[in-house]
Specification:
Elements lengths: L3 E8 L4 E8 L7 E8 L2 E8 L4 E8 L4 H18 L5 E6 L3 H19 L9 E6 L2 E6 L2 E6 L13 E7 H6 L4 H5 L4 E5 L5 H15 L3 E4 L3 H15 L3
Parallel strand pairs: 6-9, 6-10, 10-11, 11-12
Antiparallel strand pairs: 1-2, 3-4, 4-5, 7-8, 8-9
Helix pairs in contact: 1-2, 1-6
């Protein structure tokens, strides 16, 4: 029978002590190493045969919240794609390089998940790029990102159409914002942080009058998560 001992180790990162169980291991220098994962760190400990902690260190576990969000959104789109319901069109209108890359990353992650069997899709889909427009098309889901509005780009019967509109892009191109929004059943509007309050008051009145579900926010990691929570809440109702 292998004897199991316990040794207490202190973690400087979180300011707490932990008990480590270990079996006596034969090593040339009398020291063996144990590790413990907790929070966002791996605690690595050198212990001697008497259970005395000789040395310990914490190594951060790399965590990319944006990569996790992209993965979660892509899987959620696969789920939506496989559920029965009306066709869903989501047009993203922006030339913000970070946001364009984010949407493109979601599209490519969907492709990756489908081709590596990370998800089971009930429908096939295609990915295409043309004149700065990146698009994903399936039987139910149609997602695109572009710096250009292209009305009636998809001939689909009775779709649920939504738009993610970069308000600064719209203003720079002198779009009639209300005319642009009227073709959509829901809208998410990205606004500058410094002008958020003004845009919110101006646009929320319009959306409430039209009884259009809306989301108005500036770009951040948290707001991106909230944006897609809003989108999935809307799309799963249809």
């Amino acid at each position: 029978m292998i004897a199991v001992s316990k040794s207490q180790v202190y973690c400087e990162e979180c300011g707490r002590s932990y008990w480590l169980e270990f079996a006596d291991e034969s090593t040339s220098n009398g020291i063996f190493q144990k590790s413990l994962i907790h929070n966002d760190y791996v605690l690595i400990v050198d212990i001697d045969h008497n259970g005395v902690v000789r040395k310990s260190k914490s190594i951060s576990i790399e965590h990319d919240p944006m990569a996790s969000l992209i993965d979660d959104v892509a899987q959620a789109f696969h789920y939506v794609n496989g559920e029965p319901g009306e066709p869903i069109v989501i047009d993203c209108y922006t030339s913000n390089s970070q946001f364009v890359k984010f949407i493109q990353s979601i599209i490519m992650k969907m492709f990756e998940q489908a081709t590596t069997n990370h998800v089971e899709d009930k429908f096939s889909f295609s990915v295409s790029t043309f004149k700065q427009r990146t698009s994903l098309h399936s039987e139910r889901l149609h997602l695109s990102v572009s710096p250009y509005i292209k009305n009636n780009s998809i001939n689909i019967k009775d779709p649920t159409k939504g738009i993610i509109l970069d308000i600064m892009e719209a203003e720079q191109n002198k779009l009639d914002i209300e005319k642009t929004l009227e073709d959509y059943s829901w809208a998410a509007v990205i606004v500058p942080k410094s002008k958020k309050e003004g845009y919110f008051h101006a646009l929320s009145s319009y959306f409430k009058e039209k009884e259009t579900p809306f989301f108005i926010e500036s770009l951040s990691n948290n707001s991106l998560k909230e944006l897609f929570d809003f989108i999935f809440a809307i799309t799963l109702e249809n």
